[in-house]
Amino acid sequence: MKRLFLAWSILFLAPYVHAGWFGPKNYEECILKNMKGASSNAAAYNIRAACYKKFPVKTDVPLDFSSVSMTITNLNNGEFTISIFNKSYDYCLTSIEVYPVTKSLDSKYAFQPVGQLGGQMYVNVPPRETYALRIALHDLDRNGVLWKDVTLMTGGLLGREAR
After folding, report:
1. CB distance 67 to 86 below 8 Å
2. Higher pLDDT, 76 or 84
3. How does DSSP classify residue 8?
4. Which H, E and C letters describe 35-74, residue by residue?
5. To the nearest 5 percent, what fractions of the chain are helix, strand and coil?
6. 72 C-beta neighbours (distance < 10 Å), count
7. Both ends of the chain: CA-CA distance in Å?
8. What contacts 132, CB < 8 A, 6 or more positions away?
């Protein structure tokens, strides 16, 4: 009789069980639970990224360039590095637009896009953190563009509220 009652209880209550009963209910609990074993900055970054993925924030807002600082370096043969620092205290940087450009021949300040290359890149830069990425644009040489004349233009910063 006890077994029958236990089996019936499990079947009856199973649809009402929430994930929060057995694990973290929100981003903050996820961080607190998982940071205990973090032994390096890389491990802490991965834990934060996993918690953001598990408990996403749905509010996307455009960030301005005063919230972000970027350094772009052309290494060689179409390889670039972008170092991004999110100066915001309230928002995570989630995406940027990156396009290869050349200086226009008719103006020393105007830039022209190179072919159809570039587009939106998804990143995850929490508030007050730095993120570095390397981009290789090997299709540039097919357009007959000299590498020394190419740079990257960034824009369209998009972020979401931090927790």
Report:
1. yes
2. 84
3. H
4. HHHCCCHHHHHHHHHHHHHHCCCCCEEECCCCCEEEEEEE
5. 30, 40, 30
6. 15
7. 49
8. 81, 82, 83, 84
Contact, 121 vs 63, CB < 8 A? no
pLDDT in tens, 90-104: 888 988 888 877 766
Residue with tokens 């903050």: 28
The 10s digit of each residue's pLDDT in 53-71 is 888 766 678 888 888 998 8
Find residue 99's DSSP bridge partners.
153
**Tokens at 82, concatenated:** 């972008």
Q: What percent of the chain shows pLDDT beyond 70?
A: 67
Q: Distance between CA 95 and CA 91 in Å, rounded?
A: 12
